[in-house]
Amino acid sequence: MDEEYDVIVLGTGLKECILSGLLSVAGKKVLHMDRNKYYGGESASVILDDFYKIHGKEAPENMGRSRDWNIDLVPKFIMANGELVKLLIHTGVTRYLEFKQVDGSYVFKKGGKIHKVPSTEAEALSTSLMGLLEKRRFKNFLQFAYDYEPDKPATHKGIDPKGTMKAVYDKYGLDDNTASFTGHALALHRDDNYLTEPCLDTIKRIQLYGTSIQRYGKSPYLYPLYGLGELPQGFARLSAIYGGTYMLDKQIDEIIYEGGVAVGVKSGGEIAKCKNVIGDPSYFTDKVEKRGQVVRAIYILNHPIPNTKDSPSCQIILPQSQVGRQSDIYVCCVSHTHNVAAKSYYIATISTTVETSNPENEIKVAQDLLGPIAAGPFVTVKDLYHPVDKGLESRVFISSSYDATTHFETTCTDVVDIYERIMGEPFDFSKVQTQVETVEQ
């Protein structure tokens, strides 16, 4: 390892692999190392035997072949018109993957019912989420949000783009329940802080949901066949095509600094020199701080989730105000139709930010939506780590832990932020197409 690299990447989690691919495409010389023997890190997909071993158990023999399963450890869906799709297309990783639409997007309303998220003017008038007058108010609000263009004052309808989102809801007369599902199931905010922030960000988020659902129908989400573990491998393959070097099963002994700046990585007595180091929090315990925890519970079902029109895949968001919490609860479900489970089986995951000393009890309201459970829950509680600084002086750029959300928008925000800090300029999404082929089965 006598060569000098522009970037050394530690860990093969999805964030690190995306960055490795993007930087390789941008002409950077990349060395990618991982202490594990497999790709994916925390965001890997594993076969049934390995999944049970992770949880200290033996896999049952009546659930098909172990290799018929690819269970995501951190399940998430891809917004069809979102940043991850743009990154996939920009880098050409789509040539290694096949995608399938997620069949439904639902929201939970206080009282125990789930409803399809209304995202069109027609759905606004037909939804059972609200009464007749509220439906009309929501339809008018949606029409405003979808027509809004920052540079065209005529579309603003008297709304100040620097005004708060609460002021927008008030102008259209939306009640608290409608504001709750709009902010959390359409705009995908994780808490209610957005209500007092400038409305433009939320309007753009609603537009993203709308344009994503227009791509393919059913829901705004996509999911790769054979599981999310295909994504880091696709970006790793891309990096290799552009000259990136990969080393799995490689112990990282030390980060070498000179004057507080990272200049290399030591492994097994050898030192690889570099100008920048990227890695997940597990490689930099002295440079990260804990900011809470996330609980994930994975369930194996032999039926679709009830009240989702027998959807083989879906997302359900339980907004925090509907369940008396500070943070949302997320449910996602995939199945044998995505080649991640044996025939007739479904994999459901519930996740949320931990708020009490009894995380499993916090997700019970969501577990009650699943119906009979064939196996599980398989519960993990993970600490959430964030870097203590941006790394501009040390040239060490650390990703944040994967949060509780079941979509990739926050993941991409982290990735493009690190990319900008390394390259000195933002990633230009304006030049990237956004259409990917999906398969039907």
Describe the structure.
The protein is of the alpha/beta class. It folds into three domains: 4-72 and 225-288 and 388-431, FAD/NAD(P)-binding domain (3-Layer(bba) Sandwich), CATH 3.50.50; 96-104 and 289-384, 2-Layer Sandwich (Guanine Nucleotide Dissociation Inhibitor, domain 2), CATH 3.30.519.10; 117-216, Guanine Nucleotide Dissociation Inhibitor, domain 1. Helix content is 27%, strand content 25%. The protein contains twelve helices and 19 strands. The protein has helices at residues 14-25, 48-54, 83-91, 121-126, 132-147, 165-171, 176-186, 199-216, 230-241, 359-362, 364-367, 409-423; strands spanning 4-10, 30-33, 45-46, 71-72, 78-79, 99-101, 104-109, 113-116, 221-224, 245-247, 254-258, 261-267, 270-279, 288-301, 314-318, 329-335, 346-353, 375-387, 396-398. Strands 1, 2, 10, 11, 12, 13 and 19 form a seven-stranded mixed sheet that branches. Helix 1 (14-25) packs parallel to helix 9 and helix 1 (14-25) packs across helix 12. The longest helix is centred in the middle third of the chain and has 18 residues, at 199-216. The radius of gyration is 22 Å and the shape is globular. 48% of the residues are buried. The model has no long low-confidence stretch (mean pLDDT 93).
Shape: globular
SSE-based structural type:
alpha/beta
CATH topology of the largest domain: FAD/NAD(P)-binding domain
* Number of helices, counting only DSSP H or I runs of 4 residues or more: 12
CATH superfamily of the largest domain: FAD/NAD(P)-binding domain
Number of E-type strands: 19
Q: Helicity range of the residues?
A: 25-40%
Largest sheet: 7 strands, mixed
CATH class of the largest domain: Alpha Beta
- Note poorly predicted spans: none
